[in-house]
Amino acid sequence: MVDVQALVDEPAIIATAVLALGFVIGYLVGRLNKELLSAAGVPEAVEGTPFERTAQSLGTSTVEIVARLSSWFIYGIAVLTAVHIAQLLDTNAFWLRVTEYIPHVFIAVFVLIIGFIVADKSELVVSEYLRGVKLPEVSIIPKAVKYSVLYVTFLIALSQVGVRVLALMILLTVYAAGVVIVGAFAFKDFLVSSAVGIYLLLEQPYSIGDRVRIGDRAGIVQEVDLFVTKVESDSEEYVIPNRQVFDEGITRIRD
């Protein structure tokens, strides 16, 4: 006599076995890929690239990400196969939705990779552009640019996989307004220095080569830009914010 219960349970047993086997294989493939990539010199090849720097800032590496993606790919196949064997869902409809969904996943992953690269590159470009500005407030601008790009990247990626991002868009608007308000207070010295710098460049009360005294510092003017004035004495160089020049006044020393 046929054991009906055994026939009923057989798909579930096979699905469980496939799932377990898939996770074991996925783990082993991930470990193998990591060792192969390391042996092939991939860590040295990607060292210093924008994506690798971003990955390291998140506590991982390019090799780790590739190895984990290979494992997750096999995990996904195992889960889908187990679901198919166990007949938990309408198979035809399920696979139709999967085939429609997978391209969006790939697009989301691609957007994330590009977003990390663009964010890292933006931080480097802004840092390089502001390198000559000797004001402490300026140091947080590159980080703000980087994380703003990453936030927008995650919004685009989440929208690709069907996540409703309206609430996140509202949060982005609040974030942008907060950056403007906080920035107005945090960078008031920066804004004042730039405004004074424009005045100094237009009026030119002193120029390069003049001997001046600003506060208790005296020396020869080496450089005047939008944000700072550089004054050099016999043994020291002073980098003075233009706001401070305006507040303390300028004394030109005549020989």
UniProtKB/TrEMBL annotation:
GO terms for cellular component: membrane. InterPro entries: LSM_dom_sf, MSC_TM_helix, MscS_archaea/bacteria_type, MscS_beta-dom_sf, MscS_channel_2nd. It comes from the Archaea. It holds the Pfam family MS_channel_1st_1. Residues 197-250 form the Mechanosensitive ion channel MscS domain. Its main location: membrane. It is found in: Membrane. The chain crosses the membrane at residues 12-30, 72-89, 101-119, 140-159, 165-187. The keyword Nucleotidyltransferase does not apply. Keywords: Membrane, Transmembrane, Transmembrane helix. This is Mechanosensitive ion channel family protein. It comes from Natribaculum luteum. The lineage of its organism: Archaea, Methanobacteriati, Methanobacteriota, Stenosarchaea group, Halobacteria.
